[in-house]
Each structure stands twice: as C-alpha cells, then as structure tokens.
DNA sequence: GCCGTTTTCGGCCCGACTGTTTTCAGTCG
C-alpha cells in the first residue's frame, strides 16, 4: 500500500475518532502522523514496525496500524470504529464544510445517518434550527450536496488515463491498429471524462462482443447494450464505457461524428450545411480527406470543440500547436523551503536530468503559514543557495521566484525591496476564496497591475470536481494582463488546469503569453506538464506564445528586462 | 498516542476564515 492510501485510511480513522469523541490528544497523534508522512518523502511500503517508529510522529501503535494496513488493507481499530458508525455517515464526511463535530450533532439530534436524510432535513429547514447551525450553513450544505451530485460518475482525465490507454492497447491487439479508434471526450483530451468511447470496425458485431468478453477490465451491462453497441464499465473505477461496432463503409464517418463536440458538428460550411451533416452523408478515405473535401484544413481531435477552429480551418490558418518537447524549462515549483517534499537541489537535479534547461522555484510566501511560507530571512537563505547551485550546475540555471499570495486587498506579500530580489513572481490567491465576481476581479487586477507580478497563478483557484473557483471576469483579467504584460499560468495539475482552455485563445488574441506550470510539490509533479500542454493545445496554444518554451538565455533576458522596466 | 526528558509522566495546542455568535466553535489547507 502506498503512502497516499495509508494516509487516506489514517485520515478516515481520525475523523471517526472525532465523531466518537475519542481523547483529543490521541486524535492529534493520528493527524500529526499523517502530516509527517505527507511531508516526508519516505515510502512506507517496505518498512517494518521498527523502521516505521523511527519516523517522527509514529510510535508503537500507529506503526502497528500501518503494518496491519500493509498486510490486510485495514486495521482492527478502524474496524471497531466502523462498527459503531452508520454506513451512510461515511458519505456525509465527504461534504465540504461539514466536519465530524457538526456531523455528530446532526446524527445525535436529528438522527441523520445518510446524505439523503441530510438533504431532506436541509430542505425542510430542520438543520437551520439546531444550535450552532444557521441558514447559511444549511444553504451551503445543500449547495455542496448538489455539487457532489452533479459530479457523480465524472473523472479527471489523468485519473482514467492509464486504464483507458491500457484497454486501448488491448483492443488494438485484438482487432488491429486500423480498426480501433478512441472517440468522445477522451479523444478530445477534455479535462473531465464521464464516459470513454471506442469505435471498432467490423462486419460482425457478435464476434467483436465475444472477444470483448475476454477482456478482464470490461464488465458489460447487457440491459443497456444493443447489437451494435457494447455498454458497461471499465475497471475498478466504475467508469462508464461504450464501444460502438461499425461496418468498414461507415467507419470514417463514425470517427468524425463521434470524436467531435456537438458545437463543432453544428458549425456551418460555406453553403450553410452543418459540418456534421456533411460528414454523415459523404464517403471518405480518412478523416484528413473528409476535412479536405469539406474545404477545411485538418482539425486535430482536441480542437474539435466548435470554438474558433472552424473559422481558422476555412482560411487554412490553424496554429501549429505546442508540443511537450517544445518546453525548455519548468517554472512554479515548490521545495522543502515551503511545503514541497524534495529539497531545492533534488528538484533542480531531477529537472536537469529530465533534459530541461532551467527550473523556476517559487515557494509559498510568508502569509501562507499552513504551507510553511517563507519569511524574509528564509528568502535570503534560499537565494544564497540558488546562487551556489547555479555555479555548480551551469549551464543549467535555477531562477529564484516566489508564489506570492495575493492578499485580500490585492497587494503582494512582501515589501518592494524583497519583491525586487526575485527573478520572477507568480502571484496567486490562496485564501479568502468566497468572493463576489466583482471583488475577485478587482483583487486580481490589482495584483496584475503590480509591476512585480510576472505570472498570474491559477486564475480561478478551482479544483476540478471538488471546488468551484471564485467567479472572475475572464475578459477583464486577460485584458489587464495584456496591458501590464503579465503572463498567465496554465496550472498543469490535473485538479486545476487553470487557466481553463476555453480562455486560451482569447488570451493569445490579446497577445498574452501563457506558461505551462506544474506547481510541482515533489519531483514527480513535473510529469503534470503533460496535462498543461493538453490544456494549452485545446485552446490553440503555440510554442511562440508559451513563456517556458523560451530557452534559458532568452527567458533570463526576459526576466531581466521586465525588472529593468520596473525601475524606470 | 507521541515525545522527550528535569527519563516513564505530563504536556502536547497552526492560523485564517466562516458563520454562529456577541466571544467562540468548527473547518480547512
């Protein structure tokens, strides 16, 4: 069992302990053990009881618990707690804004033991009447429940990627490369996937179904399947999967129709025919040939969203999209100076090992106490270390940055002379997230207008499927970035992907550059760059408009020049 | 339950934010 799953179970244990009012210091032990595991970079997988106890915060009993987890997937104490807990309450624990204490109150006073009962109690106004609760709490519970319901059965692209790619390889093995095609939202590299779809070319659907039944990760739902359409689930995740079987004569038509979004297919051609109707009626050798016949340049699947691509395809002006290999460096990363798992040197070494020319380190600024934000002394210390490492590692270079909190009033988190000591600054909002659109926009614009802001970090603060971002006026933000020559981050963490791809094209139109930033808190975080590239590509991002596609020298000059302009 | 010692028992206790209160409790990152 990996660290992530271990801490997940320990967290559940701690929550249940709170629910059952176990000694608070005992609970604290669990939470501090979790913190220690999260922060450290020691894999617990192969450690025995003795080795576990050497880790700060883990003593005899928690070590025993972890050993049990490794051996059985659960532990005795957890099982005991679960026995005393109504099953439905476990789901209630997932609700944002509700902790164990409040849940206990709901359980003991209103006898609520499930999400369903909770929703009813909120709707009837019972919850607001309890001491310690109020109308706002009741309203926010309803909102959370609605948000959760709307996200049922949806997954992050990155979460399903491995299962999808593995099955795709299996399908290719079974049916041949030219007879299998991924379609749907996944083929367009959408950030959220509700269903994965394939198209299989065959005259004999029965034979196809038979072969499919040999694939272990697939479980067919016979009720919803039909003679040409296999429906069911993929893998343990309960991911909805559909496999269409189509004859060779309509394979290309189906590929075109099933890979594009509705908006793309509704786009009219010169004579007014919707593209979808044209694709349906015609006979084509290949997808490329179909676009050509329609008088369009070839549109890659990820652009088939009905945004701007048809107009550009008509004029043969589709951009050459950014590729991962175009990226020369990685900006916006954290180290052990704040809440990262690996040291500055480890982060730099690994970055160099992956073939990049530079690393931008931007730990949290001092206001971010929860993340070990750097006070001014630490900033000085880190910059000295960067200077030393740069001498050692040349021509590789570390740029000294900071992820400065944008404070509630829109100002940055250090006095000007400290801000001036960095090569670049990523300005982001981390606290005070519940704002009106007007307030959030004004706060961001003030930070954008600060001459020290180089990059605007995750502009909406959203966490996909978990938290809506604060509402912002995207146009106003992008316009302000254009005016102040501020780069906008495409935060490549699959939970964020923020700036959203739907705004990338507008930003480029305004000549705002974008930066693909992994926001890495550990070495393997660099691999998220890939999802940032996908996001950029969906918005039509080019190499020329990507900040970190610049080589080390060019970006060094870019940072210097920006700083010179501040002095003037 | 963990830690650290003034060494086997006593202390442990983040800070901002929100919504409830009207000085605080609960939650979150």
From TrEMBL:
Signal peptide start and end residues: none
Keywords for the protein's UniProt record, in alphabetical order: DNA replication, DNA synthesis, Hydrolase
UniProt KW DNA-binding keyword: no
A Gene Ontology molecular function term of the record: zinc ion binding
Pfam families cross-referenced by the UniProt entry: HHH_5, HHH_8, PHP
Membrane-spanning intervals of the chain: none
Gene3D superfamilies with a match to the protein in the record: 5' to 3' exonuclease, C-terminal subdomain (1.10.150.20), DNA polymerase beta, N-terminal domain-like (1.10.150.110), Metal-dependent hydrolases (3.20.20.140)
All residue ranges annotated as the Helix-hairpin-helix DNA-binding motif class domain in the record: 50-69, 90-109, 125-144
GO biological process: DNA repair
Residues in Polymerase/histidinol phosphatase N-terminal domain copies: 329-408
PANTHER family documented for this protein: PHOSPHATASE YCDX-RELATED
Record protein name field: PHP family phosphohydrolase, histidinol phosphatase
Native source organism of the sequence: Echinicola vietnamensis (strain DSM 17526 / LMG 23754 / KMM 6221)
């Amino acid at each position: 069992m990996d660290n992530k799953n271990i801490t997940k179970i320990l967290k559940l244990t701690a929550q249940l302990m709170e629910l059952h009012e176990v000694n608070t210091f005992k609970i604290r032990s669990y939470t501090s053990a979790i913190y220690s595991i999260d922060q450290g970079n020691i894999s617990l997988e192969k450690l025995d009881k003795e080795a576990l106890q050497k880790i700060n915060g883990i003593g005899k009993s928690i070590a025993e618990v972890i050993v049990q987890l490794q051996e059985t997937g659960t532990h005795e104490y957890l099982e005991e707690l679960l026995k005393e807990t109504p099953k439905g309450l476990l789901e209630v624990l997932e609700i944002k804004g509700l902790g164990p204490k409040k849940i206990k109150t709901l359980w003991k006073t209103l006898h609520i033991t499930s999400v369903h009962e909770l929703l009813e109690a909120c709707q009837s106004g019972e919850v607001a009447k309890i001491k310690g609760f109020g109308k706002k709490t009741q309203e926010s519970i309803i909102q959370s429940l609605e948000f959760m319901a709307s996200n049922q059965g949806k997954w992050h692209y990155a979460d399903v990627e491995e299962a999808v790619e593995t099955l795709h390889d299996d399908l290719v093995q079974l049916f041949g490369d030219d007879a299998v095609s991924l379609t749907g939202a996944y083929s367009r590299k959408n950030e959220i996937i509700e269903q994965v779809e394939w198209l299989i070319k065959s005259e004999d659907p029965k034979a196809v179904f038979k072969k499919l039944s040999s694939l272990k990760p697939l479980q067919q739902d016979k009720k919803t399947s039909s003679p040409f359409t296999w429906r069911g689930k993929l893998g343990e995740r309960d991911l909805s999967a559909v496999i269409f079987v189509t004859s060779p004569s309509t394979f290309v038509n189906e590929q075109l129709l099933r890979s594009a979004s509705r908006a793309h297919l509704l786009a009219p051609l010169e004579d007014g025919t919707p593209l979808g109707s044209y694709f349906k009626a015609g006979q084509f050798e290949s997808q490329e040939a179909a676009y050509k016949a329609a008088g369009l340049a070839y549109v890659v699947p990820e652009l088939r969203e009905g945004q701007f691509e048809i107009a550009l395809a008509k004029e043969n002006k589709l951009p050459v999209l950014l590729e991962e290999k175009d990226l020369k460096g990685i900006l916006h990363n954290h180290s052990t100076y704040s809440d990262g798992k690996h040291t500055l040197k480890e982060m730099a070494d690994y970055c160099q090992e992956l073939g990049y020319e530079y690393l931008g380190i931007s730990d949290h600024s001092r206001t971010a106490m929860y993340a070990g934000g750097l006070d001014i002394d630490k900033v000085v210390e880190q910059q000295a270390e960067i200077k030393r490492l740069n001498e050692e590692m040349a021509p590789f270079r570390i740029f000294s940055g900071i992820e400065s909190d944008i404070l509630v009033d829109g100002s940055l988190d250090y006095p000007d002379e400290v801000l001036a000591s960095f090569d670049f600054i990523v300005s982001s909002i981390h606290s005070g997230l519940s704002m009106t659109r007007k307030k959030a926009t004004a706060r961001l614009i003030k930070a954008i207008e600060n001459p020290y802001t180089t990059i605007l970090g995750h502009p909406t603060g959203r966490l996909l499927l978990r938290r809506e971002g604060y509402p912002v006026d995207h146009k106003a933000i992008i316009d302000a970035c254009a005016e102040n020559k501020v780069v906008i981050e495409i935060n490549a963490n699959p939970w964020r992907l923020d700036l959203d791809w739907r705004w990338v094209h507008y930003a480029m139109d305004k000549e705002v550059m974008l930066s693909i930033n992994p926001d890495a808190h550990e070495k393997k975080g660099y691999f998220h760059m890939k999802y940032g590239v996908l996001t950029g590509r969906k918005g039509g991002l080019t190499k020329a408009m990507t900040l970190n596609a610049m080589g080390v020298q060019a970006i060094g000059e870019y940072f210097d020049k920006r700083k010179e302009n501040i002095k003037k």
